Amino acid sequence: MKLAIVILNWNGKRLLETFLPSVIRHSKEATIYVADNASTDDSVDFVRSSFPSIKIIQNVENGGYAKGYNDALKQVEADVFCLVNSDIEVTENWLAPIVSTFNSEEKTAIIQPKILDYKQKTHFEYAGAAGGFIDRYGYPFCRGRIFDTIEEDKGQYDENSEIFWASGACFFIRSTVFNTLKGFDESFFAHMEEIDLCWRAHNLGYTSKYNYKSTVYHVGGATLNATNPQKTYLNFRNSLFTLTKNAAGGIVPLLFVRLTLDGLAGIKFLTAFKFSHILAILKSHFSFYAHLPRLLKQRKLLNQSKNYFMKESIVWSYYVNNKKLFNRL
Q: Looking at the whole model, is its pTM more than 0.70?
């Protein structure tokens, strides 16, 4: 199996200095690429001079995560693409369990390793944890992380299992499946494009898996942290994009409930005096309405499936029923 590790970079010299050595040290069986998104720092020159074995792909513009990877992967030949954030530290033998699963399970198209927090290595990391799921209104959550509740890793999720979506922080996908799906939806720019891709894969009958025997550590928020309103904007808008495109059944009632719940999130930000995040939610809704005709056209061209992990609302379970841990759902 030919495996390509592709690290998307944008002005990330500091992160490459810190984390690229671990990828090189523990990935002898893979070809490693740095795909640069039109950086204006000297990160490309740094990689070229410090790590001459690394292949460099230079994109002509910063198209974000989605377009950045779509453009770069057109230049990569491999059986499996491994998309790795530049703020990921990998561990010894991290690739072998993943490759073994791909070799033994033909229907498995996407795999995520265990993602722990680089700054608190006993705990799961927000962006992926032990694999992602979704509720009926399009809100994502993870084993090991629901909203802001992050669990300590006590081995409670040490079993390989099917998941609904894999984190884009460390994302393995068969190249044939990536190409069948025509890659990421570039309108997302960044955030939740991997959930959309996994949902489209799921609706075509492909399987995503979590493999606990492979572990990586993620800094998280190195490019855009959680306090940035732009992240709120992208997460709320792109979640609506994903729901509209991929959810089965009557989309109007779903969207009505979802938009109402977003309004409640706005009230929560109001009580915390986070006024810029309220504006970010409003901005995300206006952008969603502007894109709605395109999204409905995409919906007509895509398959939809009613197979959610959770038929109820994760918002209700978390905030009303006080179910903060995945094992309590």
A: yes
Q: Based on C-alpha coordinates, what's the Rg of the chain?
A: 19
The 10s digit of each residue's pLDDT in 48-99 is 999 999 999 999 999 999 999 999 999 999 999 999 999 999 999 999 999 9
The whole-angstrom separation of Cα 40 and Cα 316 is 44
H/E segment holding residue 193: helix 193-203
Q: How far is CA 12 from the centre of its chain?
A: 19
List the beta bridge partners of residue 171: 83
Residue 322: strand, helix, or coil: coil
Q: Residue ranges of the domains in the chain?
A: 3-218, 229-306
Helix (H) or strand (E) holding 293: helix 275-301
- Going by DSSP bridges, is the β-strand pair 3-9/31-37 parallel, antiparallel, or unpaired? parallel
Q: Which residue has the tokens 């952008």?
A: 287
At residue 7 the predicted structure's pLDDT band, cuts being 50, 70 and 90, is very high
Q: How far apart are CA 210 and CA 164, in angstroms?
A: 10
> Rounded to the nearest 5 degrees, what angle is found at the Cα of 234, between the Cα atoms of 184 and 150?
95
Whether the per-residue pLDDT at 308 is higher than 90: the answer is no
User: CB under 8 Å to 183, separation ≥6 — which residues?
Assistant: 66, 69, 70, 73, 197
Helix-, strand-, coil-residue percentages of the chain, each rounded to 5: 40, 25, 35
Q: What was the pLDDT predicted at 152?
A: 98
Q: Which residues of 259-292 are buried (b: 16+ CB within 10 A; e: fewer)?
A: eebbeebbeebeeeebeebbebbebbbebbeebe
Residues 9, 86: Cα–Cα separation, whole Å:
6
- The answer on pLDDT for 310 being more than 90 is no
| Confidence check: pLDDT of 34 > 70 | yes
124 closest CA partner among 37, 47, 215, 33: 215
What fold, for 3-218?
Spore Coat Polysaccharide Biosynthesis Protein SpsA; Chain A (3.90.550)
